[in-house]
Design brief:
Low-confidence stretches: 1-32
Shape: globular
Distance between the termini: 42 Å
Number of strands: 31
Number of helices: 5
Number of domains: 3
CATH superfamily of the largest domain: Cupredoxins -  blue copper proteins
Radius of gyration: 21 Å
Bound molecules: CU-O-CU linkage, copper (II) ion
Structural class: mainly beta
Mean pLDDT: 91
Strand content: 35-45%
CATH topology of the largest domain: Immunoglobulin-like
């Protein structure tokens, strides 16, 4: 967060002296080709002050010593080059969640690359075609590697800055800690796998518990919400405020108030909010997570500074985010396929806990595709969650439109890369199969994925 603010301050200062990024002094194409942005990530054991000063640090796995890892912030059209050095006690890979990368850069072990060996370095390099809120995390034993703290933000800024006073990200994390604040290492717990996944007992925002959001009255903030938890689902309520959803999974959506005033975030999902700070100087408001109604709690707090308001009333309608260049599926002519998700424990320990995609339970890593699509054609995937559990379903390499839920057209035909499915829900998604390769589709509750809720779609 501090990093953001100082960068913003710099950008404002730069704009003040006439370096406005809004005008392009040379053709955009030329600029796009010339910008290569380089980063290094070092995955290694480390420590994180999850509970803050005065508490023991937690032994974690971290990128470059930080939880969350360093923020990668680039501009739409940039080329990104990231050296990943593996200093973990096991192999790893990195997946760039939501970015429409070429298949070889997708970070899926044995499917798109060999895992990065201990001590080895792998270079990822790709263009970022779409602006928005993305993130990165391992795809090798991710239920343990992400569960120990490996993930970070990847933010792609719009080509022309969008007028918010501040751009803030909240990465929600979930940890299962013991009394000494150390990670409980029952990552193979079968009960978790067969039921709701590994839900922890400490929720953090940007790697800290109970971190307040300090604001000034009258500000207009873009708040990027991320769920990086293995399994916890969030249902956030911003007391005293009227947030508007302006993007989902990084993709602009018609600005709207969330249904029932609650923002639902399944694992891996992102929601960008426009948040007008309509409180008064000195006020404080809780941000509550009410997804599991019997266990509602305060996840964070909005704390107003004593300074006088930045402005007296909100600055007009929400700014429009420019759409990303995603091809529009020809839904009428699209070929339809059905996908059924099955399995899981129905309540008690019934010895199940194995999940299926179209009747098959994937084990290990490499898979034969269960679906073959023709490059360039439009498809509708009609998915049925034939289980008693929630599943956030993620498709790699693509952003798809969510067309219908339980047979009824969606209001916003949202572009998403991870779609939240209720128990027994039917969801139809549509996309143009323009990105060739073998792509994973899986539940992002990482324990479900590990125990079979995954498959491969081949586009060729
Ligand atoms: Cu964010 Cu296959 O994952
Ligand atoms: Cu699942």
């Amino acid at each position: 967060m501090t990093m953001n603010i100082s960068r913003r301050t710099f950008l404002r200062a730069a704009a003040g002296i006439g370096l406005s990024a809004a005008a392009h002094p040379w053709p955009l194409g030329a600029e796009t080709r010339s910008k290569v942005r380089e980063f290094r990530l070092r995955a290694a054991p480390g420590h994180a002050p999850l509970l803050g000063a005065g508490h023991p640090q937690t032994a974690v796995w971290a990128y470059s010593g930080q939880v969350p890892g360093p923020e990668i912030r680039v501009r739409q059209g940039d080329r990104v080059r990231i050296q990943v050095e593996n200093r973990l006690p096991e192999e790893t890979t990195v997946h760039w969640h939501g970015i429409r990368v070429p298949n070889a850069m997708d970070g899926v072990p044995y499917l798109t690359q060999k895992p990065i060996a201990r001590g080895a370095t792998f270079r990822y390099e790709f263009d970022v075609p779409d602006a928005g809120s993305y993130w990165y995390h391992p795809h090798f034993r991710s239920y343990e590697q992400a569960g120990r703290g490996l993930y970070g933000l990847l933010i792609v800024e719009e080509r022309d800055p969008v007028p918010f006073d501040r751009d803030i990200a909240w990465l929600l994390g979930d940890w299962r800690l013991d009394r000494e604040a150390q990670i409980v290492d029952d990552f193979d717990n079968r009960m978790d796998a067969g039921m709701a996944g590994r839900i922890g007992n400490l929720v953090t925002i940007n790697g800290r518990s109970a971190a307040p959001l300090r604001v000034r009255a009258g500000e207009r903030v873009r708040l990027r919400l991320y769920n990086s938890a293995n399994a916890r689902i969030f249902g956030l309520v911003f007391r005293g405020h009227r947030p508007l959803v302006i993007a989902i999974d990084g993709q602009p959506v018609e600005p709207h108030a969330p249904a029932n005033g609650r923002i639902i975030l399944g694992p891996a999902m992102r929601v960008d909010l426009m948040l007008d700070m309509t409180g008064a100087p000195g006020e404080r408001f809780a941000v509550r997570d009410t997804f599991y109604p019997m266990r509602a709690y305060s996840v964070g707090e909005i704390v107003y500074a004593d300074e006088p308001p930045r402005r007296q009333r909100p600055p007009g309608p929400p700014p429009r985010l420019p759409p990303n260049p995603i091809p529009e599926p020809a839904v009428e002519k699209a070929e339809r396929h059905t996908i059924a998700f099955g399995g899981g424990m129905m309540g008690g320990a019934d010895g199940g806990g194995i999940w299926t995609v179209n009747g098959k339970s994937a084990s290990g890593h490499a898979h034969e595709p269960f679906l073959r699509l023709k490059r360039g054609k439009s498809y509708v995937l009609a998915m049925h969650n034939n289980t008693a559990w929630h599943h956030p379903i993620h498709l790699h390499g693509y952003t798809f439109r969510v067309m219908a839920r339980n047979g009824r057209p969606t209001r916003f035909r949202e572009w998403q890369d991870t779609v939240f499915m209720d128990p027994d829900e039917k969801v139809e998604i549509a996309f143009v199969a323009d990105n060739p390769g073998d792509w994973m589709i899986h539940c992002h509750i990482l324990e479900h994925m590990q125990t079979g809720l995954m498959g491969v779609i081949r586009v060729s």
